[in-house]
């Protein structure tokens, strides 16, 4: 019997399984199949979205903006099988048409969840588990699912032969006609700079936490009342902030102005936080879309992406891709401004649109056009100012810096919750559209992913209001932009300073790298992924190179492996996430479908020429689900 092994049963593996269920009736032609899911964590949520994490940690998207199912917007060859968003699933739990999660606390959170609320991660774990169960139930007869709660250690086998997947704790490997890697976010070994800081910390008995998933971090070394330098102000910082404040017994009350006031427990450290930008990610937008949507894609669509794929040689992001992306984002911004807020413009939209189309991105002609047509500077699209809001700003001292950063965060919160600034939401839609085109163009480098996350994947507004309360309480102190951290061997401490407040230096005996490690095949701590490095093609950034058509892993000569596929952030076909915002033609759904169809077509051929062969009963500790 043909055998398919999927390594990674988190959201990406679950999404791939859903596409197998959708496409198998048409492509497998009734053939039998053993489908093995390999993951030490429970299927559905996997490691990152497992139930076993703090109930204080939230998602950063509203419940109505989260789905694990395809919809009419998704351009797939396979059938679309819609399913409930997270908010709709919660409503079904409330009305009793879907069973509640077994944990009473999580079930209570689900029942209280509204469409515009931010779910706890344990709620998302329950939704993903339910999604997984629906996918298994939808598989046609003849496909048997085997769950292996183990780590995959190694993959072997010739290109034209069955593969062997070696699992932790088992002597015999799993035979596989096809293997799909859906590994998700993985821990990585420290780079040279991080290793040097770790050695310095060990010599001087300091605390150093390298980049990692914050829910996995041991925070016990961060002592109450002591300063901690934090490098990073993205989502990992928000998790760290929560776990070291509310997680240590602090509470919030409501002040006279309606804003939160933090009441310390006395067990918190003092967080001195900075980054390259020096500011937190932009707040999640707090109002729904109304009216006409920008007609996207306009300047960067499938035709432009196809032309880029035909170019000889490697693509350069700044030279080849960013001009198209910038023009697309600007078009989304101005389309919304002119159609929804025409009183803030001085030119009819058709005239502006025609002139905009002829302008080079960022050039003098475009600057002149926008200055003439859009009188308010705050209404103009300026990606450089968005990306570096503190560029050129200098504060007289540490206290002035705190006031300046609180003002910046407050202004961002006000803008992102005010529909008068709805071009910001149009840019968000533009970002999703651009990401969908870039997903098939290989490794775009780290800047784009950081820029996208900063604008489109920021924290909920309530989290930033809590950050302001922590700043006012003195529990968080901002360090500013272009943060530099050094190891002071003479005094045995870490030292931090930034370009925002020259002369202000912070010292501490603890340093936290508040960010996920960048995906890297060579430095991955996952033994299976690291074992692929000698034979597989990788990008300069260390990502696994895969075929943009179906996700087959490429070898060093650029040949697609006939029996090995990979999906997820460790590949150069990175998508925005394993689940998505409804109605956005999510690239991860398209990739899952293409890979599932290629896998099933191959397995149908195998089934036609291979007599039934079983590997034996599932190993001890594994389970089967017919």
From TrEMBL:
Region (Disordered) residue ranges read: 605-626
- Cross-referenced InterPro entries, in alphabetical order? HpyO/CreE_NAD-binding, L-asp_N-monooxygenase_NS-form
Occurrences of domain FAD-dependent urate hydroxylase HpyO/Asp monooxygenase CreE-like FAD/NAD(P)-binding (ranges): 5-185
Superkingdom of source: Bacteria
The residue ranges flagged as biased composition, category Pro residues, are 617-626
**One Pfam family matching this protein:** NAD_binding_9
Instruction: Identify this protein by name.
Output: FAD/NAD(P)-binding protein
């Amino acid at each position: 019997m043909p055998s398919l092994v999927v390594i990674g049963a988190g959201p990406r593996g679950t999404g791939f399984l859903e596409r197998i269920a959708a496409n198998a009736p048409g492509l497998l032609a009734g053939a039998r199949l053993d489908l093995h899911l390999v993951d030490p964590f429970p299927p559905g949520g996997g490691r990152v979205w497992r139930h076993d994490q703090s109930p204080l940690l939230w998602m950063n998207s509203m419940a109505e903006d989260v789905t694990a199912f395809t919809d009419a917007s998704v351009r797939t060859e396979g059938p679309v099988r819609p399913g409930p968003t997270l908010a709709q699933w919660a409503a079904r739990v409330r009305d009793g048409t879907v069973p509640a999660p077994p944990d009473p606390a999580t079930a209570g959170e689900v029942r209280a969840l509204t469409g515009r609320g931010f779910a706890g991660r344990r709620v998302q774990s329950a939704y993903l588990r339910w999604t997984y169960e629906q996918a298994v139930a939808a598989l046609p007869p003849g496909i048997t699912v085997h769950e292996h709660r183990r780590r995959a250690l190694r993959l072997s086998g010739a290109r034209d032969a069955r593969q062997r997947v070696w699992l932790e704790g088992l002597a015999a490997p799993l035979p596989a006609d096809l293997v799909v890697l859906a590994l998700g976010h993985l821990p990585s070994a420290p780079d040279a700079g991080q290793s040097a800081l770790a050695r310095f910390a060990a010599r001087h008995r300091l605390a150093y936490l390298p980049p990692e998933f914050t829910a996995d971090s041991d925070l016990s070394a961060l002592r109450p009342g002591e300063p901690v330098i934090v490098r990073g102000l993205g989502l990992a910082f928000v998790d760290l902030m929560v776990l070291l404040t509310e997680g240590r017994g602090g509470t919030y009350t409501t002040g006279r102005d309606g804003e939160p006031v933090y009441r310390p427990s006395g067990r918190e450290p003092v967080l001195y936080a900075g980054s390259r930008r020096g500011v937190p990610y932009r707040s999640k937008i707090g109002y729904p879309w109304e009216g006409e949507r920008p007609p996207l894609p306009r300047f960067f669509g499938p035709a432009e992406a196809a032309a880029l794929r035909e170019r000889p040689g490697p693509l350069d992001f700044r030279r080849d891709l960013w001009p198209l992306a910038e023009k697309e984002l600007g078009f989304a911004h101005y389309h919304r401004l002119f159609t929804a807020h025409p009183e803030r413009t001085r030119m009819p939209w058709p005239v502006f649109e025609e002139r905009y189309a002829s302008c080079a991105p960022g050039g003098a002609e475009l600057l002149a056009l926008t200055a003439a047509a859009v009188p308010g500077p705050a209404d103009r699209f300026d990606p450089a100012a968005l990306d570096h809001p503190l560029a050129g700003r200098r504060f007289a001292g540490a206290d002035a810096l705190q006031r300046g950063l609180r003002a910046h965060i407050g202004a961002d919160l006000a803008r992102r919750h005010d529909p008068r600034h709805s071009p910001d939401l149009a840019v968000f839609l533009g970002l999703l559209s651009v990401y969908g085109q870039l997903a098939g163009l290989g490794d775009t480098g780290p800047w784009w992913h950081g820029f996208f996350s900063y604008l489109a994947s920021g924290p909920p507004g309530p989290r930033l209001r809590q950050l302001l309360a922590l700043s006012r309480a003195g529990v968080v102190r901002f360090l500013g932009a272009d943060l530099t951290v050094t190891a002071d061997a003479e005094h045995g401490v870490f030292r931090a300073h930034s370009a925002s407040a020259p002369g202000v230096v912070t010292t501490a005996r603890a340093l936290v790298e508040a960010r996920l490690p960048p995906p890297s095949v060579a430095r991955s701590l996952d033994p299976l992924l690291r074992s692929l490095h000698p034979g597989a093609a990788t990008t300069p950034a260390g990502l696994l190179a895969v075929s943009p058509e179906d996700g087959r892993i490429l070898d060093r000569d650029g040949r697609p492996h006939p029996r090995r596929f990979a999906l997820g952030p460790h590949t150069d076909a990175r998508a925005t996430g394993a689940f998505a915002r409804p109605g956005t033609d999510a690239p991860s759904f398209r990739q899952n479908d293409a890979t599932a169809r290629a896998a099933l077509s191959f397995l149908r051929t195998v089934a036609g020429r291979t007599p039934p062969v079983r590997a034996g009963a599932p190993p001890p500790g594994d389970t089967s689900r017919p």
